[in-house]
# Entry
Amino acid sequence: MRPAPPPWEAARGRRGGRGTPHRPPGRGTAPQGPTCARCRRPADATILSMFNTEEICLDCQEREEQHPRYEEARRAEAEAVRRGELNFPGVGKPEDL
# Structure
């Protein structure tokens, strides 16, 4: 005996990926690319922040590099790696970033 079709297929009377009343085709079904954790915009590429563990876009990275505490964060991360601490959480994101 054949199992009953899922409700969204039974309601439409056919099988096939043409969407459902609750999920139209192409809406929320395709995988999304990376998103910047800081500005929340879609990003072609991301990089880890020097201040914390956020994945940020290249625009946010440029802003981060201009911050007065950037060199301090870079040095702290390099020092942690020299000590063997490969999961360094960062020095903390400044409020003005």
